[in-house]
Q: What sequence folds into this?
């Protein structure tokens, strides 16, 4: 299983307040949503699906290439890599 | 008797469909919402002296204007004002599913909550204080288990009571916090003052909320500049404070409202463990096993369709042959022979030839229903996203394509789950390459006629694979040329695995099978009679038939008829594909619906040779053609022009004849090219 760590993302242990894309989060890790960097349409749609500020996100699997699976508000969601890049977490 | 209209709202994966089926049974009716092409399912039931019409709204996460489904669902609730709106909530995940409920509360719809799949929730150790929660939500809550039929009466009781009771003003609604509430109040006042008609119709508070959410549809309804200015100002103000879009803050507050309501009323007695779904997912969506498992399941599906379906099929075949013989034998000699021919050759030969395949069709639908109901279908989309992405499509595109194996028409309708128009167009255009159930009837006729039993499964598999590969290549080509552009982001909920219940699966299968039967009873019956006429008229003169024995005379009639003439006319064109005029005739006649090919062949042979008892259609085909020609016929039927219904649906969904004609012509061209190459190469290889 290849994680995004190879793509030059910060290490998750830093405990910083700086946001990083969800795509860089390793399986099993729990993070919180900061914001979604997308157009209004996708932003609103994601918010309705539970992607609201500060919500907890658990990454279940992060296979590269391809979509990955996370748990948001107790539901499993599949995300494409494009979306995962736009979701900023800490 | 009182009439009550009920709208079923709910998230995708809330089990809304199974609840709908539970309420209405087989009393269902499918139409389209006016103006848009979203499927509208309606059903009927009776309860306590009330006649209840249940409308199944499209599954949505919210009621904004992000997609056609949401607009349709919202419009139905606002404009049609159903007596009761039932919000179907997955009881094992109330917090997430109540989001839609908060919007229904804001619309002030007369609400009943169905906490569906409550058995699963109980097993997960959730305990509900429904009384308290019901007080907070100000609506009745009924626990249900849609796929097992539990809670039906209680839900209907709640619906009837809610419909008959006085409406009171709500006391609990979502509180958006002082900053937002202040701005909302401003907008509310402006709306009430300047847009009185709108306010009267939809409520000033709801309009204010939607305007704050920057809902374009509602904003478009506002005419007065004063209101528009206030709205724009408020939005800018909120943006300035929160440094985020107002609708995001509002979504957050709605979730806050829900968790407030749930905190006191829902208790989890068991810690959520790593459940079975995770373990299954780790296997079926894994990088190495995911695709083989998927392909394997598809293979098993088609193997079952073919092998298991063989036995009831033979039974039906015998039944139709027996009735044809019985009619022929007992027909009074020399009286109205044309009527006998119409009944035996036209009706029984045509419709019977298609009905024989009902067991196969039902088995295929059964398998698809099981894959859907178990939750595997969503995983299939996940597995396929890797591949679909490479051909420039969305993993979700795979779902309509999969439905395409049943029938292209609902498949094209299912492309509405794709938000990106280019993605959607590409998917629509290649869907006919996914071999539909109608074409299966052609394969089930041809494959046993030309191939030994142990080769039948593999040949069928190859045919389906050819369609898939061509679909993939065409999609890629389209995305690189005509329909260039970015792919849409992929977000999709994975439903938990469920054991499909027999009842739900059978209802699914039955409804689809019934649609097929109706098609056989109407379009195919009509077309069969027309075809019979085209194969018998115009008749040659009496002199031309004089002196010929019965068989030769029949041959003469057929060759002289309209069918024979068209078939002959195109023969030079299709000769290089290995086809003769009989095949050509059946191909022309199968343009209205692919399964007609089979009844066509049946009629052509029955007309050409009366003593059909001696040899079945398959034996006749085997005697007339080589396996290579048989294979080429299947290829051509697979790829060529989609049926009339599909073409009409493409036109409807793409909004122009241009795409429908493009699909029709380019697929036929592709079919000709591929079949030509296969036939010519095959001839060189096998002589």
A:
């Amino acid at each position: 299983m290849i994680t995004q760590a190879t793509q030059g993302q910060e290490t998750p242990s830093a405990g910083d307040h700086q946001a990083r894309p969800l795509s860089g989060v390793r399986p099993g890790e729990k993070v919180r949503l900061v914001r979604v960097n997308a157009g209004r349409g996708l932003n609103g749609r994601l918010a309705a699906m539970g992607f609201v500020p500060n919500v907890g996100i658990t990454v279940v699997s992060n296979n590269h290439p391809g979509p990955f699976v996370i748990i948001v508000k107790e539901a499993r969601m599949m995300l494409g890599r494009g979306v995962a890049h736009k979701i900023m977490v800490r | 008797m009182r009439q009550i209209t009920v709208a079923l709202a709910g998230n995708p994966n809330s089990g809304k469909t199974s609840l709908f089926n539970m309420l209405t049974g087989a009393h269902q009716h499918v139409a389209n919402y006016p103006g848009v092409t979203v499927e509208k399912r309606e059903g009927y039931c009776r309860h306590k002296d009330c006649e209840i019409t249940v409308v199944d709204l499209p599954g949505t996460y919210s009621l904004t204007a992000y997609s056609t489904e949401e607009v349709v669902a919202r419009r139905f609730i606002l404009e049609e004002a159903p007596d009761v709106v039932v919000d179907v909530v997955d009881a094992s995940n109330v917090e997430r599913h109540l989001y839609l409920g908060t919007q229904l509360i804001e619309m002030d719809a007369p609400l009943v909550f169905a906490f569906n799949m409550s058995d699963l929730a109980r097993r997960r150790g959730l305990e509900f204080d429904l009384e308290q929660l019901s007080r907070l939500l100000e609506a009745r809550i009924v626990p249900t288990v849609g796929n097992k039929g539990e809670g039906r009466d209680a839900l209907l009781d709640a619906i009837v009571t809610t419909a008959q009771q006085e409406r009171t003003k709500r006391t609990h609604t979502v509180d958006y916090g002082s900053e937002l509430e202040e701005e909302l109040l401003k907008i509310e006042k402006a709306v009430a003052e300047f847009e009185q008609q709108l306010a009267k119709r939809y409520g000033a508070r709801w309009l204010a909320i939607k305007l704050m959410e920057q809902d374009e549809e509602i904003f478009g309804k506002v005419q007065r500049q004063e209101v528009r200015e206030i709205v724009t100002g408020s939005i800018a103000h909120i943006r300035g404070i929160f440094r985020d879009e107002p609708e995001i803050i509002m979504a957050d507050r709605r979730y806050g409202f829900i968790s407030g309501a749930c905190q006191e009323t829902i208790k989890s007695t068991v810690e959520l463990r790593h459940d079975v779904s995770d373990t299954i997912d780790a296997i079926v969506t894994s990088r190495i096993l995911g695709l083989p498992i998927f392909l394997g399941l598809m293979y098993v599906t088609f193997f079952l369709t073919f092998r298991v379906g063989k036995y009831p099929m033979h039974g039906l075949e015998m039944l139709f042959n027996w009735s044809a013989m019985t009619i022929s034998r007992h027909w009074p000699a020399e009286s109205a022979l044309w009527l006998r021919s119409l009944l035996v050759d036209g009706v029984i030969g045509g419709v019977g030839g298609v009905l024989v395949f009902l067991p196969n069709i039902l088995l295929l639908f059964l398998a698809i229903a099981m894959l859907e109901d178990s939750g595997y279908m969503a995983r299939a989309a996940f597995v396929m996203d890797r591949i679909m992405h490479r051909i420039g499509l969305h993993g979700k595109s795979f779902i309509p394509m999969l439905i395409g194996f049943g029938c292209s028409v609902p498949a094209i309708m299912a492309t509405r789950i794709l938000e990106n128009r280019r993605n959607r167009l590409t998917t629509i255009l290649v869907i006919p390459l996914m071999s539909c159930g109608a074409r299966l009837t052609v394969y089930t006729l041809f494959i046993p006629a030309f191939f030994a039993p142990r080769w039948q499964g593999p040949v069928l598999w190859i045919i389906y694979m050819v369609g898939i590969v061509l679909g993939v290549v065409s999609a890629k080509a389209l995305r690189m040329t005509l329909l260039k552009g970015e792919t849409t982001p992929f977000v999709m909920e994975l439903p938990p695995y469920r054991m499909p219940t027999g009842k739900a699966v059978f209802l699914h299968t039955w409804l689809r099978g019934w649609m097929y039967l109706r098609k056989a009873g109407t379009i195919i019956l009509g077309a069969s009679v027309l075809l019979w006429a085209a194969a018998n008229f115009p008749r040659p003169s009496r002199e031309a038939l004089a002196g010929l024995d019965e068989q030769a005379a029949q041959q003469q009639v057929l060759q002289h008829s309209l069918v024979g003439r068209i078939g002959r006319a195109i023969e030079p064109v299709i000769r290089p594909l290995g086809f003769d005029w009989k095949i050509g005739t059946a191909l022309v006649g199968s343009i209205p619906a692919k399964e007609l090919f089979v009844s066509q062949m049946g009629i052509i042979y029955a007309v050409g040779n009366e003593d059909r008892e001696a040899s079945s259609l398959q034996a006749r085909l085997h005697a007339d053609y080589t396996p290579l020609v048989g294979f080429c016929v299947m290829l051509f039927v697979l790829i060529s022009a989609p049926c009339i219904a599909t073409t009409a649906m493409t036109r409807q969904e793409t909004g122009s004849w241009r795409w429908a004609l493009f699909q029709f012509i380019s697929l036929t061209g592709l079919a000709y090219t591929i079949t030509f190459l296969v036939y010519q190469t095959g001839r060189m290889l096998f002589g």
Q: What stands out?
A: The first strand of chain B starts at residue 2 and ends at 10. Residues 502-536 of chain B form the longest helix (35 residues). The beta strands of chain B are 2-10, 28-32, 39-47, 50-56, 84-90, 111-116, 126-128, 140-143, 266-268, 491-494. The domain at 2-164 of chain B is CATH 3.40.50.300 (Rossmann fold).
